[in-house]
Description:
The complex is a heterodimer of chains A (210) and B (196).
Chain A: H1 6-16, H2 26-33, H3 39-59, H4 62-78, H5 89-108, H6 131-149, H7 153-164, H8 169-176, H9 180-203
Chain B: H1 3-13, H2 20-32, H3 34-52, H4 60-76, H5 86-106, E1 142-143, H6 154-159, E2 164-170, E3 177-183
Antiparallel strand pairs in B: 1-2, 2-3
Amino acid sequence: MLDGVDSLAMAEEGASLGRPQADPLEATVLRIRSGEVDAFEDLMLATEKQVLGVAWRILGDQDLARDAAQETFLRIYRSLDTYRLGESFQAWMYRIAANVCCDLARKRGPAPVSTDTLEASGSEPAVPPSAEEAVLLRQRRDLVHQALDTLPPAERAALVLRDLEGLSTEEVARALGVRPVTIRSQVASARTKVQAFCSRLLRRPAGGRS
Amino acid sequence: MNCSQVLSQLPLHVESDLPEAEGRAVTAHLEACPACREALKRLAASQAWLKAGTEPPFDAQARAALRRAVMAQIRTSPRRRVLPWRPLLLAAASVALVVVTATRRGHPVPPPREAPRPPVTTVDVPGPAPTEALPQESPLRLARRAPSPEAPDEALTDLLPGGPSRIELQTDNPNVRIIWLARVAPDDQPSPQEQP
């Protein structure tokens, strides 16, 4: 689910109490629109985990995900006037992020096997796991990315936004510019393929390659 | 619902994406069918595996670096403001363009205006022999009709030897124009330089 999205929880709480549901990021958006450039840093602090996360999950590559996140935030900044107050800022932001990631994925071509998890980088979780846990985590990430790489780009984007980012079907449909029924079909197909990948993995003899 | 129908719905049922009535029907089938329950368990396990294995590998340091890079760029390139009335202005301009285009297509472009004519001081009512009534210094002007879009070659046939000629006498009253149709012999045809 979404990380660090206390603001979303607040918005849902407001809706359940019958108050008009305003996006909690609107105040920050208004500050930026009025010319307060530094307020954009606050907006990034509130949303960077989601943007980096969705980029990494769709692209499966750490460097590309950083590039995609940077480009997403620059586009958000430049087109902030086109965001309509009252709409979900998250959904608008995911729409931009998904477009940027799809553009980058097209330029890159077929995804190579991810080597992110094999990199010794300083970007692991703040609390370092034990050596054995780290190996297991890397292996699991690698396998999940292999599973995601088996999906067509549209199915992958739909699955990432729906199941890993926690957007509703309607929000995913708006973000990707298709009808909700298409999203349902794409996520159903993607879930079936991921499950088939897991089944093949379990049938594979230890140390063997599929 | 039979097993085949339920199995096709499980990928949506596993994340509660089915409409309420269909979800209830699937649940009812699952209570009585161990094979479909097992299939649902496998799907749920793969979903859990997927979610657990996609925790992004970006720590606070990586996120701070991203913020610095973005803020450095936006401080050097100020945001372009989109004025609230700009979309309306663009829409109005588009409509105006469409209207002008449609009007021009519906009505042919008028022929270019003739150069200002010299003033005509007197009007002679022509006699029965028009070709003889046109001396070189006649105050009456020999006018050629501008080619009409419907018959663009008519003006050319006017001057062809043996073809019908059209002679227009413009009076000083702009509403009065005398038109003669006559066949001109080749010898009488004036050269283009002689035409006014």
